[in-house]
């Protein structure tokens, strides 16, 4: 009985890593498409979002099956419940990466990128997602906490991007539509950073049994 | 075995005892009977003599005899009983028919024996005829055979018990003694002390099989050690996964490539490839291949392998590129395992990249002069060139052709250097200062046209090397120094020695090289100023040849340059190159 349960937990772990990997690919691809202006890649990312959604459903049903059939307690329960929470964040990351890709496909942007730290922001976000998945894979408490700290960097970059874009519009109103698109992308990056933070918090919870939101209350 | 021996011995003992008892009883019985008969005959004869002496039957005497125990019967000649010690004579039937009496009447004596079932007794009768015609009969009774048997049974039983009591421990000891050597057999060395000859065929065979097993085990161990040595020492990574894609076994290289130790996984089969039981694990969680690398390409390749085809992909770990080959392993149940092979292809890919760039460059460089040649030739062919211009056009064609030849020569030279086979080059002692003088002499006229002076300074130093390559190296450097010099500039060649290392240096007062180009000028076909280089000629391979020639001599190149001030390139030969410092050169 326990053996079977262990095998299922191992499978859950593998599926989670796979889903994390899909998210990494999505966000990494979105950043690359942004940097290189590769709209083909962007279209590909949009198509791949379906895989993330499918994987979410798989993990969800696996988790529910485990909860119902095995009635886990203590650490096992934590692992399964945090997995259930994490996949929601991962799925959102996938969606938002696809949203970024959608903007990149439609956008006909000027050849020269204005001097805004959007690339930097994208790379920072991508790093957060990679690090949070890595923290999950290695059950690395320090890594998870580092991701949570790193969110401030992305937030700060978002403010910078916003300020630059306001500047850009005030210089030339014709830039308005395009600047809005860039702002949306920046906002998506910022949201993805928040989701990565959530994942890291759940990683922390699954290790320590204590979630940040509880402690702060 | 011991029990069996014991049981058999007891059974044998019992059988023997019974047989002995029976035989003993029969013998006893026969002896008794014959003694009794003898006595009976003697008694009868005595009594006859007495009665005959008394002159007829003396009933009183006979009555007296009755108390002794022997049965005496006196019968008349017609068979009527006159006297009997056991009963009333008158009531007894006529005895004339009795066989012993009948015989006595006829022969004077007779005997008979009869068996009484009632008393389990045997009766013997002996009769003799008295002188007065009467028949005297005496009878005695003995136990029958069965009587004897049952009579002695108690004694026999007691004896048997006594015998058993003594013999069972003895038999037990005996059985032990028989079995002991068998129990004591050293099965590893069965032939060491053979206790029973009967066992030796068995033991010989055992010994032979032992040896076979040992040999096979040894062979297995050796093969395993060999396998481990191969897998642990090979550069390529090897990972074996089970049907759940958990890592069963991973060799040293793969550990390093995928960073297993960094993840803190334990168990599995460290240093023991091939033992497939349990996967590596950390805190009870098995190591999934995705824990090591979660790229989608890898997962796809592994899935491919699980479905029975081999999968390939490329992964990146720590900035190096690995080609991954996943092959299926047939498993017992449904999903089989996967063997992953990791090959470092970073250098290969870089080399590939370089080769691609080189061939692209070569074709471009070859095409440029050819286009000019073909263009000039076409114009001349169409008769559009005036007679006086023909020589000018031909000159152009000639120049471009020379350039082509130079280019091809350089490429040949480079490819020879690329082979990096030192044996193709004959090493000899080369004196560098005079070599520099030769070079400067050759280039003097070319330099003189632009008012550039070439100076040679320094002391005589000798290195072991390939004269042709060293010549070419200095020529190329000097040629560059002239080409990229300002008109009226200066080129200085110098030779010297610094802390045991001989050096040659070429300095100019030319246009110099901007710092961002420093790292790349030794690349093939790299040009700092692409438009300018066309005018100055050259193939773009000169410095590349210098680099390769220096590498062949294990020499180092140092570059100092400042834009618009000049360039100094120094070639340092390794320490051992100074023959004077060599121990016994």
Helices and strands in order:
The complex is a heterodimer of chains A (217) and B (585).
Chain A: H1 2-36, H2 39-70, H3 74-106, H4 118-138, H5 141-171, H6 176-208, H7 212-216
Helix pairs in contact in A: 1-2, 1-3, 1-4, 2-3, 3-6, 4-5, 4-6, 5-6
Chain B: H1 2-54, H2 59-66, E1 71-75, E2 81-84, H3 99-107, E3 109-116, E4 121-129, E5 135-143, H4 145-151, H5 153-183, H6 200-233, E6 237-241, E7 247-250, H7 252-258, H8 260-263, E8 266-267, E9 280-282, E10 285-286, H9 289-292, H10 296-306, E11 311-317, E12 320-329, E13 337-344, H11 346-381, H12 387-419, E14 428-431, H13 432-449, E15 453-458, E16 462-465, H14 467-483, E17 490-498, E18 501-508, H15 530-536, H16 542-552, E19 556-562, E20 566-572
Parallel strand pairs in B: 15-17
Antiparallel strand pairs in B: 1-2, 1-5, 3-4, 4-5, 6-7, 6-13, 8-9, 9-10, 11-12, 12-13, 14-16, 17-18, 18-20, 19-20
Helix pairs in contact in B: 1-5, 11-12, 12-16, 13-14, 14-16
What does this 3D model show about the protein?
- The complex is a heterodimer of chains A (217) and B (585).
- By secondary structure, chain A is mainly alpha-helical.
- Chain A has one domain: Up-down Bundle (Methane Monooxygenase Hydroxylase, Chain G, domain 1), CATH 1.20.58.220.
- Chain A is built from seven helices and no strands.
- The longest helix of chain A is centred in the first third of the chain and has 35 residues, at 2-36.
- The model of chain A has no long low-confidence stretch (mean pLDDT 84).
- With 585 residues, chain B is α+β, with helices and mostly antiparallel strands.
- Chain B folds into four domains: 2-153, PAS domain (Beta-Lactamase, 2-Layer Sandwich), CATH 3.30.450; 234-341, PAS domain (Beta-Lactamase); 349-415, Signal transduction histidine kinase, dimerisation/phosphotransfer (DHp) domain (Helix Hairpins, Orthogonal Bundle); 422-581, Heat Shock Protein 90.
- Chain B has 16 helices and 20 strands.
- Chain B starts with a helix and ends in a 13-residue tail after the last strand.
- Mean pLDDT of chain B is 81; it is low at 269-276 and 580-585.
- Chains A and B meet through helix 1 and helix 4 of A and strand 10 of B.
């Amino acid at each position: 009985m326990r053996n079977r349960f262990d095998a299922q937990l191992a499978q859950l772990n593998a599926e989670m890593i796979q889903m994390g990997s899909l998210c990494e690919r999505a966000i990494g691809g979105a950043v690359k498409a942004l940097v290189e202006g590769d709209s083909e890649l962007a279209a590909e990312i949009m198509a791949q979002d379906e895989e993330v959604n499918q994987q979410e459903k798989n993990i969800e049903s696996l988790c529910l099956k485990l909860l119902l059939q095995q009635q886990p307690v203590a650490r096992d329960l934590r692992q399964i419940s945090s997995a259930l929470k994490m996949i929601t964040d991962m799925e959102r990351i996938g969606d938002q990466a696809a949203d970024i890709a959608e903007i990149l496909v439609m956008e006909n942007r000027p050849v020269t990128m204005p001097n805004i730290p959007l690339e930097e922001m994208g790379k920072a976000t991508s790093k957060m997602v990679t690090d949070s998945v890595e923290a999950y894979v290695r059950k690395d408490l320090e890594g998870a906490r580092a991701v949570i700290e790193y969110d401030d960097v992305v937030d700060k970059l978002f403010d910078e991007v916003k300020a630059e874009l306001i500047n850009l519009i005030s210089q030339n109103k014709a830039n308005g539509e395009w600047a809005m698109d860039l702002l949306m992308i920046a906002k998506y990056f910022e949201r993805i950073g928040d989701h990565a933070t959530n994942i890291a918090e759940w990683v922390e919870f699954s290790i320590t049994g204590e979630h940040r939101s509880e402690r702060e209350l | 075995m011991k029990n069996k021996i014991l049981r058999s011995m007891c059974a044998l003992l019992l059988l023997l005892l019974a047989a002995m008892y029976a035989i003993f009883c029969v013998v006893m019985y026969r002896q008794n009977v014959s003694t009794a008969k003898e006595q009976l005959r003697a008694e009868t004869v005595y009594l006859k003599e007495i009665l005959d002496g008394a002159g007829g039957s003396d009933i009183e005497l006979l009555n007296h005899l009755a108390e002794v125990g022997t049965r005496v019967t006196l019968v008349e000649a017609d068979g009527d009983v006159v006297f009997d010690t056991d009963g009333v004579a008158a009531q007894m039937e006529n005895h004339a028919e009795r066989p012993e009496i009948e015989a006595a009447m006829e022969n004077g004596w007779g005997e008979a024996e009869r068996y009484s079932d009632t008393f389990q007794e045997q009766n013997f009768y002996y009769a003799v005829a008295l002188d007065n015609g009467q028949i005297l009969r005496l009878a005695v009774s003995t136990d029958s055979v069965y009587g004897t048997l049952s009579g002695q049974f108690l004694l026999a039983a007691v004896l048997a018990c006594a015998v058993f009591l003594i013999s069972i421990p003895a038999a037990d000891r005996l059985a032990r003694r028989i079995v002991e050597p068998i129990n004591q057999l050293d099965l590893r060395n069965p032939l060491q002390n053979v206790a029973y000859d009967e066992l030796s065929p068995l033991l010989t065979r055992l010994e032979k099989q032992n040896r076979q097993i040992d040999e096979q085990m040894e062979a297995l161990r050796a093969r395993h050690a060999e396998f481990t040595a191969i897998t642990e020492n090979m550069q390529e990574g090897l990972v074996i996964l089970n049907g759940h894609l958990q890592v069963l076994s991973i060799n040293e290289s793969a550990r390093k490539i995928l960073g297993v130790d960094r993840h803190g996984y334990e168990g599995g089969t460290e240093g023991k490839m091939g033992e497939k039981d349990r996967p590596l694990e950390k805190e009870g969680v098995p190591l999934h291949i995705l824990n090591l690398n979660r790229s989608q390409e890898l997962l796809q390749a592994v899935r491919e392998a699980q479905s029975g085809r081999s999968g390939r992909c490329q992964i990146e770990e720590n900035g190096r590129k690995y080609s991954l080959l996943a092959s299926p392993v047939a498993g017992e149940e449904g999903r089989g395992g996967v063997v992953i092979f990791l090959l470092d292809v970073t250098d290969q890919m870089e080399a590939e990249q370089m080769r691609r760039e080189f061939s692209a460059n070569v074709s471009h460089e070859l095409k440029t002069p050819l286009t000019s040649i073909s263009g000039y030739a076409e114009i001349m062919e169409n008769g559009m060139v005036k007679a006086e211009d023909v020589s000018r056009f031909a000159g152009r064609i000639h120049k471009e052709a020379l350039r082509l030849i130079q280019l091809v020569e350089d490429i040949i030279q480079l490819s020879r250097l690329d082979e990096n086979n030192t044996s193709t080059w004959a090493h000899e002692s080369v004196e560098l200062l005079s070599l520099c003088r030769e070079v400067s002499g050759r280039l003097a006229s070319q330099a003189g046209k632009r008012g550039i002076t070439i100076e040679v300074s320094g002391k005589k130093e000798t290195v072991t090397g390939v004269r042709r390559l060293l010549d070419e190296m200095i020529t190329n450097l000097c040629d560059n120094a002239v080409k990229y010099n300002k008109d009226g500039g200066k080129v200085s060649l110098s030779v010297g020695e610094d802390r045991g290392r001989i050096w040659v240096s070429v300095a100019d007062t030319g246009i110099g090289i901007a710092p961002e180009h420093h790292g790349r000028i030794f690349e093939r076909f790299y040009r700092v100023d692409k438009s300018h280089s066309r005018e100055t000629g050259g193939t773009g391979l000169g410095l590349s040849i210098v680099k390769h020639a220096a590498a062949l001599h294990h020499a180092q190149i140092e570059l100092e340059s400042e834009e618009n001030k000049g360039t100094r390139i120094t070639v340092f030969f390794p320490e051992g190159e100074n023959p004077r410092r060599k121990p016994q050169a």
